[in-house]
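Person: I keep going back and forth on a fold encoding question. Show me how you would write down a chain together with its backbone fold. Please set it down just below, with no commentary around it:
Helper:
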Amino acid sequence: MTWEIKKHPLNAKGKFYIDQNSCICFDTCKSIAPNNFDYVNDDNCSHFVSKQPETAEELEQIREAIRCCPVEAILDDGETNE
C-alpha cells in the first residue's frame, strides 16, 4: 500500500517537515528538539516543524528526532533551508 504524504500546513518553510498522515502525536520529536517542533492539539493531534534548524545543535537534534520517530513521520526533502 502506498501512503500519500501530506505536509502539515503549519510546517515552517524548509527542508524538514512532518507528514500529517503519518504523525501519531507521540511527542518524541518535541522532547528531542523542543525549539524546532510543536503540535496542534485538535481532533487529529499532530506535530509540525515550527522552526527549521539554525545551528549545528538544532540540526543534530532534528536528525535524532528523525531517527527516533516511531512512525517515520519526520521527513527531509533534501532541499536547503533557504
